[in-house]
Specification:
single chain, mainly beta, Deoxyuridine 5'-Triphosphate Nucleotidohydrolase, Chain A, four-stranded antiparallel β-sheet, three-stranded antiparallel β-sheet
Length: 146
Amino acid sequence: MNSTRIRIKRLVSEAVLPRYAHGAGEDAGMDLCSVEDALLEPGTARTVATGLSIELPPGFEAQIRPRSGLALKHAITLPNSPATIDPGYRGEIRVILLNLGREPYQVHRGDRIAQMVIARYEAVEWEEGELNGTRRGGGGFGSSGR
C-alpha cells in the first residue's frame, strides 16, 4: 500500500495524532479526537477542537466524516458531512458535531469524535458546449425505479 507523508502540527500538547484503528490496510478513515470537553445539546450544532493543523499537498483534501458508532448509539453526526479541508487551509481542524438525539451528549477530552479520510482530487477546466446524449438523459431522483 502506498503512503503519502503529510506534515501535521499539534497546537496543544495533549492533541492526539489521527490514527487508523485497524491499520491503513483495513481502514480508510483515521480517528480524530477532541482536546476539549463539550456538551452537545439536542438539536444544536457546535464545533469541537482537535488541537491539530495539517499541511496537505496540492491535489489532496481531508474529508471529515461522522463515526458510525456515535451516529448509531447517540445520534451524533456532522451536518456538513463530509466536511472538506482544502490544501491551502492551515488553521485548527475543528469538527462540527450535531446531536440529533433527545438527550444531551457529553464529549470528553480524548474522545474519538470523527474520522478523517485523505483523498486525491482532480483540478478541472470547464469546456462549454453541447453534452453527449445517454439513455438516462435528464432523469434524476427516482428515475431508475424504486
